[in-house]
Specification:
single chain; 149 residues; Nuclear Transport Factor 2, Chain: A; 34% helix; globular
Length: 149
């Protein structure tokens, strides 16, 4: 094999191995799944439904609030089932969504309000969804507060 053919084979191999690591728009099927999972997450929050939430969370989930508190799966499920102040409004509007192979990073504008009308000062929420087995599960969630400058 000539050195040019060998170099072309190596370049092709590297491109096909490395290309899934680069971000791109999710496939239409994956986008539809992630949007449905996001809605199921919001529904579980609003209904205080820990059983529904459990179906969405990876066992290794890291859940960070806008106040910088970090919770594991058990703490999230406990808080969802018996919140200190139940939510009346929970909305996430997609800003960006990028797919890296079996991982999707979605960034949302957030609107959360307690049933008593108190607005929770979220600016954005980022959720990382990973395909584990045949399902897409939340492995990380990070909220940031609104900038009050």
């Amino acid at each position: 094999m000539s050195s040019i053919n060998l170099m072309l084979c190596i370049a092709f191999s590297v491109c096909t191995i490395v290309s899934p690591a680069f971000a791109g728009e999710p496939t239409p099927e994956v986008r539809k799944i992630v949007l449905a999972k996001t809605q199921a997450y919001l529904d579980a929050l609003l209904k205080c439904d820990a059983t529904a939430m459990a179906k969405l969370l990876s066992p290794e989930v890291v859940y960070t609030s806008a106040a910088a508190t970090v919770a594991d799966r058990a703490a999230v499920l406990k808080d969802v089932s018996a919140p200190k102040s139940p939510l009346g409004v929970a909305e996430l509007k997609v800003n960006t969504m990028r797919q890296y192979g079996d991982t999707v990073v979605a960034n949302y504008d957030a609107n959360f309000q307690h049933k008593d009308g108190q607005v929770i000062p979220h600016g954005t929420v980022t959720i990382v969804w990973v395909k584990q087995g045949h399902d897409w599960l939340m492995v990380a969630r990070q909220a940031t507060g609104k900038n009050h400058h």
